[in-house]
Batch of 2 targets.
Target 1
Amino acid sequence: MTKKPINVVVVISGSGSNLQALIDQATAININITGVISNIASAYGLTRATNANIPTEVVDHTQFADRDTFDTALMATIDRYQPDLVILAGFMRILTPAFTKYYTGRMLNIHPSLLPKYRGLHTHRRALEAGDKEHGATVHFVTEELDGGPNVIQAIVPVVKMDTEASLMEKVQQKEHKIYPQAVAWFAEGKLKMEDNKAFLMGELLPPTGKRLSDDDNE
Ligand code: GAR
């Protein structure tokens, strides 16, 4: 590979299994994870980062008076790692418009539903309660609208009778570990862009669902 890897910062709150997928594929997808930041000091993702020799920081939201001051501190911390792309991977805080505006077009999120279905929390429970036959995950650009920025890629999982919240989460996360590195790889290659609140892949407007990971794309 001749192109220089892009610098990314991964922002987490928890286990960091998506972070792990990115760590494992970093060379293949041409990224350099310059820092991992968590708002929760006990997040296991911080251990994953340390094990991979990636610098970590904690910006504890409980130490700030309000969202604005927390987001300002988080931005300053992120920027010290000079990212070309900010990757939210299980980061469980709502962001202020100032924050989302500042990183427009250079911040991605992964959400455990087939957006625009089930923005917000408890997505697996809501899919089960609705009797959905399909559920999944979406990678999207982050905009001011919560879980509402343009979609980049989705993966679908079938919902079967036996499924529980836990089994559904497990199936969805397995797909997440494929679609997030894929989306980041496109960004690193310069193929994925956001303009005018729309996502483009190789210059082509993506459909509202984003790309779909099909079963044949599963390598
Ligand atoms: C992932 O399933 C991700 O989709 C979800 O949190 C999990 C984090 O897992 N994100 C959200 O719910 C964002 N609203 P991980 O820490 O093992 O990557």
Target 2
Amino acid sequence: MDRQYLIVGNWKMNKTPSQSADLVKEIVDLRRGIASHVAIAICPPFTSLDRCAALLSGTDIAIGAQNLYFGKEGAFTGEISASMLKDLDLKYVILGHSERRTIFHENNELIHQKIKAAQASQLTPILCVGETLNEREAGQTLATIGEQILSALNSVDSNLVIAYEPIWAIGTGKTATPEMAQEVHRFIRELLLKQFGENGQRIHILYGGSMKPDNAASLLKQPDITGGLIGGASLVAESFVNIAAAAPNG
Ligand code: 13P
């Protein structure tokens, strides 16, 4: 059987609802040219989710959100719950992105609560982990990633995706070399196997950080990189779909 890949677009705080609708239509058109062993998902801003979900219904492109709050409902002004997202037929929710950790001070414990809330509503969390440049230079990459993963995964199930996003590679044009990324992905795979047994083999481990059509193939052919979480390049339908097209066959 062909190796399965997952390519996810994280639109971050970009696109109004009408701009989002235009972009989704382009992606749906271009997706026809992409092999079926490459699954595709997009994560637009909250305000575009309803409209994009309607446009994607009946296609094989999945949709997710970029955050949630773990409370079920109630006095949490400005927040969105897992069940609100599930009601829109969403499949994924990105959690623990480094922009949320850094700008909005999210810590491992809060992210853990969010993962549990997502899974309790049958959403698949995409847990983002990654080291700063200082941590990499101090030789602490694997220790940082290990702590982020183990704290997040304490008593959760294997319905999840991991995204390794070195913080120094996000939006900077600097990519981890395929070998650097593979080393971390292998480490993550081993943690997943230890935690979930054979089910850990089926969990996608995406690479994120300046992934583009011209560097995607060399990253995606690494044995433990099974997809990508794409920021900037996911805002243009052609470059997003060309990343998906770069996934090796078989
Ligand atoms: P860029 O692809 O813009 O570097 O962003 C990566 C990212 O943060 C995806 O979540």
